[in-house]
Write a structure and sequence with these properties.
Layout: E1 2-7, H1 11-22, E2 28-34, E3 38-40, H2 45-50, E4 59-61, H3 62-69, E5 72-75, E6 78-82, E7 87-90, E8 93-96, E9 99-102, E10 107-108, E11 117-118, H4 122-131, E12 136-140, H5 144-156, E13 161-166, H6 177-189, E14 193-196, E15 208-211, E16 215-216, H7 219-223, E17 234-236, E18 248-250, E19 255-257, H8 266-284, E20 300-303, E21 309-313, E22 316-320, H9 321-336
Parallel strand pairs: 1-2, 1-9, 2-5, 9-18, 11-15, 12-13, 12-15, 13-14, 17-19
Antiparallel strand pairs: 3-4, 6-7, 7-8, 10-16, 20-21, 21-22
Helix pairs in contact: 1-3, 1-8
C-alpha cells in the first residue's frame, strides 16, 4: 500500500482530491494535512469581504471532499519535511509518505517586526476582519490584491478611511495602462487615499495595517533541503515535480516552475489541479508523467466593490456590470463542482 500525503488544502489539492474521487487509484492511502476543515476560494473572497457572498459560498468543505476521495483528513499544521525518512513533520507528530505534494500557499512579505495583519493566511485575515471596528486602515500593496481588497472593504464599511500604499510609482504594475488608469480614477473618486512611490515599514496613523505585498514562502520549505528559488519557493519542473527530490511535488503559490516566469496568482493554482492529479497518479503507477505548460496570458477579473468588475487581458480592458456577472458565473461554477460530489 503506497502512501500519498497532500500538505495544504489549496486550490490545486482540492481539484486533485476531486479527481481522485472520480478516478480512484487502487492500493493507495491518501492523507490531506490541513490546518482547517474548510479552505477558502480566492476568487470569491473579495466579494465575501464586501458582504456579497456568505462564508459557505466561498469555502470548500475539505471533510466532505476527503470522504468523496476516500482520503483521511488530518487537522494539523505542517512544520517541516524529513526527506531522508520520508516524513512530513507536524505539530502533532510525523506523517510517513511515499509521495508527497505541497500546496500550502504563501504569505505577504512584511518587514521584520512589522505590526498588522497579512491578507494571508486568509482564515486569520477573515477572523480579524469580522472583529474589526476601527475607523481607518492602511493597506500596504497596490497590486491587484491590495486594490481589490481596498474597494471591497470600503463597500462593507463605507465610512472607513482607507490609505493605500504602493512602493512602485504606479498601481497594478502588472496590468496595462488602461486598467491602471481606471483603478486610479475609481480609487480617487471613492476617497481612498493613495500613497504611491512609498515603501512602508509601519503605518502609525491608522487603526490597523493590512499587508498585501509580494508573496513570501514559509521558511521550513527551504530548511527541508528541497531545491528552492531565491525567494524560498519550491523549484519544480514541467511535471510540477521537485527538481531535487522526485518524490516531492508542489503546486500553487508555494511552487516556482523552472523556465516559466509567472505571477503568484490563483488562476495558475486552479489550472495546475488536473495536471498535478495526472502526474501524482502516473508516479504512483510508474507511468510516464505529462508536462504542464502554463499560459502566457490570462484573464484577470477584478471586482470594484459595487458588483461591477474590470477585465484585464494583455493590452485590453473592459469595465462593466456584465464583467461582474461573468466573474460571478466563473467563480460559482468553480465552487459548484465541489457541491455536486456524490
Amino acid at each position: 500500500m503506497q502512501k500519498l500525503v497532500l500538505v495544504g488544502g489549496g486550490h490545486s489539492h482540492a481539484i486533485a482530491l476531486r479527481q481522485f474521487g472520480l478516478h480512484p487509484v487502487p492500493d493507495v492511502e491518501i492523507t490531506l494535512i490541513s490546518e482547517a476543515e474548510n479552505t477558502p476560494y480566492s476568487g470569491l473572497l473579495p466579494g465575501h469581504v464586501a458582504g456579497f457572498y456568505s462564508y459557505e459560498e466561498c469555502h470548500i468543505d475539505l471533510r466532505s471532499l476527503c470522504e468523496f476521495a476516500k482520503a483521511e483528513l488530518r487537522i494539523d499544521r505542517a512544520i517541516g519535511l524529513d526527506l531522508a525518512r520520508h516524513q512530513v513533520l507536524c505539530e502533532a507528530g510525523e506523517v510517513e509518505f511515499d509521495l508527497v505534494s505541497l500546496d500550502i500557499g504563501s504569505t505577504p512579505m512584511m518587514p521584520a517586526g512589522a505590526a498588522g495583519i497579512g491578507a494571508k493566511p486568509i482564515a486569520q485575515f477573515l477572523k480579524w476582519w469580522n472583529q474589526f471596528d476601527g475607523k481607518s486602515v492602511a493597506i500596504v500593496g497596490g497590486g491587484t490584491g491590495g486594490v481589490e481588497l481596498a474597494l471591497n472593504m470600503q463597500a462593507k464599511m463605507p465610512e472607513l478611511k482607507i490609505h493605500l500604499f504602493q512602493r512602485d510609482r504606479e498601481l497594478l504594475p502588472s496590468h496595462n495602462p488602461w486598467v491602471r488608469q481606471q483603478f486610479q480614477k475609481i480609487l480617487t473618486q471613492r476617497g481612498i487615499q493613495l500613497h504611491v512611490g512609498q515603501a512602508v515599514e509601519r503605518a502609525t496613523d491608522c487603526d490597523a495595517t493590512v499587508w498585501v505585498t509580494h508573496a513570501s514562502a514559509t521558511p521550513w520549505v527551504k530548511q527541508s533541503g528541497l531545491a528552492v528559488d531565491a525567494q524560498g519557493f519550491v523549484l519544480v519542473n514541467e511535471f510540477l515535480q521537485s527538481v531535487s527530490h522526485p518524490e516531492v511535488f508542489a503546486a500553487g503559490d508555494i511552487a516556482t516552475m523552472m523556465h516559466y516566469d509567472r505571477p503568484k496568482a490563483g488562476v495558475f493554482a486552479v489550472r495546475q489541479g488536473k495536471p498535478l492529479f495526472h502526474n501524482l497518479r502516473a508516479k504512483l503507477e510508474n507511468r510516464v508523467l505529462k508536462p504542464y505548460r502554463p499560459q502566457k496570458r490570462y484573464l484577470s477579473l477584478i471586482g470594484t466593490g459595487d458588483k461591477v468588475a474590470v477585465a484585464s487581458y494583455g493590452g485590453f480592458g473592459w469595465r462593466a456590470p456584465w464583467v461582474w456577472w461573468v466573474k460571478d458565473f466563473i467563480d460559482r461554477s468553480f465552487m459548484n463542482q465541489f457541491k455536486r460530489m456524490i
